[in-house]
Amino acid sequence: MFGKLLIANRGEIACRVVRTAKALGLRTVAVFSEADRDALHVAAADEAECIGPAPAADSYLNIDAIVEAARRSAAEAVHPGYGFLAENADFAEAVEKAGLVFVGPPAGAIRAMGDKSVAKAIMEKAGVPVVPGYHGAGQDLATLGKAAQKIGYPVLVKACKGGGGRGMRIVEDPAALKAAVAACRREARAAFGDGALLVEKYLSRPRHVEVQVFADSHGNAVHLFDRDCSIQRRHQKVIEEAPASALPGRLRDEMAEAALAAARAIGYVGAGTVEFLFAEDGRFYFMEMNTRLQVEHTVTEMLVDADLVAWQLAVAAGETLPRRQGELEAAGHAIEARLYAEDPERDFLPCGGRLERFRLPDLDGYAGSVRIDTGVREGDDIPIHYDPLIAKVIVWGETRPRAVQRLGRVLADIQVAGVVTNLDFLRAIAAHPAFAAGDVDTGFIDRHLAGLLAREEAAPERMLALACLEVLLGGAAEARRAALRSADPQSPWHLTNGWRLNEDSRHVLTFVDGAAEVAVPVRYRGRGFLLELPSGPMAAGGEIDDAGTLIADLAGTRIQATVSRQGSQLTVIAFGTRHTLTVVDPAALAAGQEAPAAGLTAPMPGKVVQVEVKPGARVRRGATLVVLEAMKMEHAITAPADGTVVEVHFRPGDQVEEGAELLSFDDDEDSA
Fold first, then answer.
1. What is the pLDDT of residues 267-307, one digit of tens each?
2. In terms of domains, do 346 and 410 share one?
3. Predicted TM-score (pTM) above 0.85
4. 292 classed as catalytic
5. What's the total number of domains in the chain?
6. Which CA distances in Å does 602 have to 24, 304, 363, 630, 631?
């Protein structure tokens, strides 16, 4: 086997490949953009090479820069990870032309399956059923429109290259086709460098079932069973599990054979995934083949007890597959949940920011049945330039119900603060009766969205009490530090224990909880406090340990909690839940703040890719005004009401910060 490996990717997959490669005795080289200089995958590798500025097009998608980094570091092989250039045939060819080993399939196989139109033609020729659709060379709007009309709405418009939900839109009627085609082209070009599109019939309630295949250069090929990846938002997977539950045995076998036939038809070598749509009528259709390792490969690893990255490296080095089909057995059930920096309350808008708190549960007690893959640490920033994946939580159980139960327990013990995430959303999925029953399809999230969104109610009084303790104990610690810095550290005026001259001690803490304001009078009692909560008094005390954990005593009950503070905002994490409160600072309120001008602002940092209106334009509620590109996805900024555009502040290509006013807008209702 080769001795030095360059990983042409970032994040958790780069960390994962580094870990496996080191275990095999290989030297590792990471690549990084200027935004990732201090990233975990850089620290994990033996060496690291900078490949360019933060934008992916200038770094992680820059073939010449990565090949040059491999030459500079004297690497002998290149692992593409997943995403970015992992399914780029030109990259595979450039690596091989440079005399290096590409840890992946041959460029010809990538090219055949990387173009969805070509892939579907190959499958049709092989007799594998495909979703009805148009996969032709004609790419003008009129041709696509005629195809959509013939197929019958609703249709799915999607990029011929790439995946991950980018360059994909559901189109319900002809009036929406033009905008969908334009948006899909822009996303496809930005993500994959190719704007070619296809149109296919949209199946309303299918399951997304895929088969993991593996082949070597000696003619051996195996399947490693199937996975269900139906729970998705924005056509991107959120929950994956293996095996797919409640599939008829005959159908499972047919899918596996079709997947192997696809791999053999293109001379496949390495890890690949053949994806199918399983319709309500019991039929399955080939959708696409991913010529790479996928994010969800971890559930297959748990199912068959194998390291698929190690398999990739062995096959790339010319070795035979570690196991034959008869030696592979699917044991138990595995589930993966993807933890993202995104806001489910705002249509899963990706969110950048700093991980002020990121604590994972101790996995020693799970005896290998839980694994968490991540590429970030507490204190890291989530860059706006890349996919907002924070971590993958993978659990295994002897049965599916046990795996579901274990997933809920592990998610409850994860602590994240400082950046908005989908953690509460994942917890809600794990606890949902339909998920527990295995009643899943690609419409699961849309169908159950109202019940899955974590709409915060008033803070439970124990959470309110913990917030009070954080403020009181944090203030005491700061007072002690101030006393040590002063000329008279022993002065009683430094005390925060409620000492008063000739009067009872009483203080009022005020919090904003949602739209309500809650006042909690506090009386100091010896080494603790008496909190006058809305339902009555509660004795409370505690301390904050060196790790920042709040060890609280609430009415005689000992509780461990975490309270993360950012300015005046407190995030209380306890009892497997979290709640956000804002501490009211009277001094700040007295100073006042200037109200922002009426306008529409950027929900996150990004690049303006389209401006649809001009000053003076009359628009209707819901009309697209500006299109922003951030975290590899497009986000349409729409009119909140009927009105008039007064002024547009940015042009296509401009970079904007979060909160930047994109345009001024006169609302008809406000003007009335």
1. 999 999 999 999 888 889 998 899 999 999 999 999 999 99
2. yes
3. no
4. yes
5. 6
6. 46, 46, 40, 10, 14
